[in-house]
Design goal:
Helices cover 45% and strands 20% of the residues. It has a five-stranded parallel beta sheet with strand order 3-2-1-4-5, sandwiched between helices. By secondary structure, it is an alpha/beta fold. It starts with a strand and ends with a helix. The radius of gyration is 15 Å and the shape is globular.
Length: 163
Amino acid sequence: MRVGLYPGTFDPVTLGHIDIITRATALVDRLVIGVAINRDKGPLFDLEEREAMVEAECAGIAASTGCEIVVHPFENLLIDCARDVGAGLIVRGLRAVADFEYEYQMVGMNRQLDDTIETVFLMASAERQAIASKLVKEIARLGGDISKFVSPSVRDKLLAKYT
């Protein structure tokens, strides 16, 4: 069984994340969505809210692709999380050159820690490349329309945080 790990903070899960998740299901039999517990980032949504949003957004993807999708919180090193869930593949989404530079360094470090776990980069679809959770939160906070960036369910949860 091919197991992949797609890690992120998912604060909140965006259509960009969903694009990468959907495409990653073609590469693996089981996709673990690693929801990072990153206290330094100070997420808007708590861990349970982020897990619930990701699970809800992925239910239809799992049903339509036949890929098992599991949500797994983690607070340890990414490479240790990959080992914990039995992943031989880490999936990372790329939006821009700046993402690549950071991710390139991370791959190098992860390969030093465990060279048996591969990293695969998936480019975001052209219409999703500009989406970033941080920017979506800022647009929502300032009263802008975020419907092009998140699902209606996530939009409602995000707007509730700012009202």
